[in-house]
Amino acid sequence: MQMFEKSLVKEFLLYWKNCRETEDLDKIAQGKTTVTEDGNRVELTWQINFRYGRFLFVLVKMFEPSTILEVGMANGISSAYLAKAQNTYLKEKNAHVIIDPFQSSQWFNAGTALLKRLDLYENVRFVEDYSLSAIPQLEKDGHRFDFAFIDGSHCLDHTLSDLVTADRVLNIGGLIVFDDSADFGVKYAVKYIDKYRYNLRRIRFDNNLVHALREMTNNRRRLTVYQKIAIDDRGADGI
Ligand SMILES: C[S@@+](CC[C@H](N)C(=O)[O-])C[C@H]1O[C@@H](n2cnc3c(N)ncnc32)[C@H](O)[C@@H]1O
User: Fold this and answer.
1) pLDDT tens-digit map of 54-64
2) Measured from the CB, is residue 161 less than 6 Å from ligand 1?
3) Fewer CB within 10 Å: C terminus or N terminus of the chain?
4) What is the pLDDT of the chain when averaged over all its residues?
5) What is the pLDDT of residue 7?
C-alpha cells in the first residue's frame, strides 16, 4: 500500500469532488426506502450519506486494497460503495469481509440483498456475528486486510474493541476509517487514537483550522482516516 503523502490528498480531493462513477449508488443512498431479502419495502435508515459513500469509493479506487474489512452493514449502502470500487480492479471471493450480528434479525438481510441486486456480491464474505468475536476469529484464521471501515456499535468500548482488533489484522500501510467520528463514543476513540496510537497516522484532508471548523459546525468530516505506519508495540505500561 502506498503511503498517503500530501500530493495524494490533493489528488483525492479533486477526484472526490468530480467523481461521477457512483451516481447509481448516490440515488439509492438518498432514497427513503429499500427492499429486504423477502421483497418487502422498508425504511432506509442509518446509512452513510452519499457524499461519504463517494468518499469511501474514491479512497478504495485510489488505494486498491486487496482485502477490505467492514464492520456494520445495516442496509448495505456503505458496503455497496466499497464493493463497487473494489470490483473495478479485483474479482475474488472473500476479498471483502462484512461483519454484522443483526443483518437477518434487524435488517431482514436488506444489506446482502442490495449487493446481490447490484451484482456486487462476488467478492463478499458476510459474517453474522459481533465484531468483537468475529475479528479475532479472522485473525486466528490468518486473514489480513489492507482497508478497514468501522461503522458498527458506536459505543466507546465497542469502538475501542474494533480499533484494537482491526489494527491487529491490518497490514502496514493499510487504512482504517471510522464513520460518525464526530459523534457518540467514536469521537472519544478518535481523540484517544490521536494521542496514544503512534502506529496510526491520521490523514487530514484539509488544514487543521478548516478541519476543526467543519467538524464543529456541520459534521461534514464525520469520516476519520488513519494509515497504519507500524505495528502497535507498546508494552503493558503503554510505552
Ligand atoms: C450505522 S449502521 C451501519 C451503516 C452502514 N455502514 C451503512 O453506511 O450503510 C450500524 C450497524 O452496526 C451493526 N452493529 C451493531 N453492533 C455491532 C457489533 N457489535 N458488531 C458489528 N456490527 C454491529 C448494526 O446492526 C448496524 O447494522
Assistant:
1) 999 999 999 99
2) no
3) C
4) 95
5) 87
Cell of 122: 462476488
Question: What are the grid coordinates assigned to 149, written together?
Answer: 471501515
The pLDDT of residue 12 is 94
200-205: list long-range contacts, CB under 8 Å, 24+ apart. Answer: 200/167, 200/176, 200/226, 200/227, 200/228, 200/229, 201/4, 201/226, 201/227, 201/228, 201/229, 202/226, 203/4, 203/9, 203/175, 203/227, 204/9, 205/9, 205/12, 205/13
DSSP 3-state assignment of 120? Answer: coil
Q: Is 152 in the pocket of ligand 1 (CB under 6 A)?
A: yes
- Cβ(99) – ligand 1 distance below 6 Å: yes
Residue 1 binned pLDDT confidence (cut-offs 50, 70, 90): confident
> CA of 186: how far to CAs of 76, 81, 132, 177, in Å?
21, 22, 16, 11
pLDDT digits (tens, 9 = 90+) for 172-209: 999 999 999 988 999 999 999 999 999 999 998 887 78
The alpha carbon of 21 and the centre of ligand 1 are apart by a number of angstroms equal to: 25
**Best of 71, 79, 135 for a ligand 1 pocket test (most atoms within 8 Å of beta carbon):** 71
Q: pTM of the entire structure?
A: 0.97
The Å distance, Cα 73 to ligand 1 centre, comes to: 5
Class of the CATH domain delimited by 6-228: alpha beta
